[in-house]
């Protein structure tokens, strides 16, 4: 009877003695029964919506409902669009971003997808602006050493920020070359650390990093430059020479 009013009493859609246009859907001669449709003589509102608001266009509507996974936005008297919490903000986590919205608030959003068959409209607020991490992602690569700021200390490692935009994670086993130093509680939120990128996930905008790998590589470089198999120098001597050389280069530059 209706595209949008599901499981409602027919009396809320039509009234007795009201004349309506209907479409013949089926004729069962043996049962002398004719099936009619009321909604079929009306335009599908989702088809009408996508014609007026193609994917990529902007819309505005009132927040009609807030659920644990996103916001429902009123797009007309009868249909809603849904903004998943992951499409609210480039910078904040879904639950954090949702805390900034309330029922009845007017918001603007971009049309991401319209599934006419499933009667679903997907919207996004963060897509109204360019991804701030897009440019930075083009400049970082596997093997690069970057300066990170610790943003969270967890039992299994530390979460870090790179260039204040990209999120990275350093697993417990990658926090140091020596096992005794592989403790997340050695680090504090806000502390700066240098780490080597081991993986770049462009879709999730996340980096995987290692401090251990950076230290091992630095040791190899120091051995190659300041030590040899017959030099008799200890590892401490070699690393000390490498550190002094690096500090001197930094002062000269």
Radius of gyration computed on alpha carbons: 30 Å
SS strand fraction: 25-35%
Helix content: 10-25%
- First-residue to last-residue Cα separation: 78 Å
The CATH class of the largest domain: Mainly Beta
Alpha-beta content class: alpha+beta
Chain-averaged pLDDT: 82
Write the CATH fold name of the largest domain.
Answer: OB fold (Dihydrolipoamide Acetyltransferase, E2P)
Low-confidence residue ranges = none
Give the topology, please.
Blueprint: E1 23-28, E2 33-37, H1 45-52, E3 58-66, E4 70-74, E5 80-84, H2 94-98, E6 106-115, E7 120-124, H3 133-137, E8 145-154, E9 157-162, E10 166-171, E11 192-201, E12 206-210, H4 212-226, H5 235-252
Parallel strand pairs: 5-7, 10-12
Antiparallel strand pairs: 1-2, 3-4, 3-6, 4-5, 6-7, 8-9, 8-11, 9-10, 11-12
Helix pairs in contact: 4-5
What do you see in this structure?
By secondary structure, the chain is α+β, with helices and mostly antiparallel strands. It folds into three domains: about 10-40, no CATH class; about 45-130, Nucleic acid-binding proteins (OB fold (Dihydrolipoamide Acetyltransferase, E2P)); about 140-215, Nucleic acid-binding proteins (OB fold (Dihydrolipoamide Acetyltransferase, E2P)), CATH 2.40.50.140. It is about 20% helix and about 30% strand. The chain contains five helices and twelve strands. It has helices at about 45-50, 95-100, 135, 210-225, 235-250; strands spanning about 25-30, 35, 60-65, 70-75, 80-85, 105-115, 120-125, 145-155, 155-160, 165-170, 190-200, 205-210. Strands 3-4-5-7-6 form a five-stranded mixed β-barrel. Strands 8-9-10-12-11 form a five-stranded mixed barrel. Strands 1-2 form a two-stranded antiparallel sheet. A hairpin with a 5-residue loop joins strand 4 (about 70-75) and strand 5. It is elongated and about 95 Å long. About 15% of the residues are buried. The model has no long low-confidence stretch (mean pLDDT about 80).
């Amino acid at each position: 009877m209706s595209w949008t009013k599901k499981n409602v009493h027919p009396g809320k859609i039509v009234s007795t003695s009201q004349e309506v246009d209907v479409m013949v859907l089926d004729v069962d001669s043996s049962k002398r029964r004719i099936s009619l449709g009321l909604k079929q003589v009306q335009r599908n509102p989702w088809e009408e919506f996508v014609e007026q608001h193609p994917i990529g266009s902007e819309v505005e509507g009132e927040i009609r409902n807030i659920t644990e996974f996103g916001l429902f936005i009123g797009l007309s008297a009868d249909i809603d669009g849904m903004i998943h919490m992951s499409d609210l903000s480039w910078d904040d986590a879904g639950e954090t971003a949702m805390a900034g919205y309330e029922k009845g608030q007017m918001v603007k959003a971009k049309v991401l997808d319209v599934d006419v068959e499933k009667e679903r409209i997907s919207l996004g607020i963060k897509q109204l602006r360019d991804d701030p991490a897009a440019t930075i992602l083009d400049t970082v690569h596997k093997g690069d050493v970057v300066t990170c700021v610790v943003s969270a200390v967890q039992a299994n490692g530390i979460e870090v920020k790179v260039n204040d935009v990209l999120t990275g994670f350093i697993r417990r086993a990658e926090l140091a070359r020596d096992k005794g130093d592989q403790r997340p509680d050695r680090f504090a939120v806000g502390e700066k650390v240098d780490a080597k990128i081991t993986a770049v996930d462009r879709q999730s905008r996340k980096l995987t990093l290692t401090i251990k790998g950076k230290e091992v590589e630095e040791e190899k470089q120091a051995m190659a430059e300041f030590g040899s198999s017959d030099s008799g120098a200890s590892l401490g001597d070699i690393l000390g020479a490498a550190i002094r050389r690096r500090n001197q280069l930094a002062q000269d530059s």
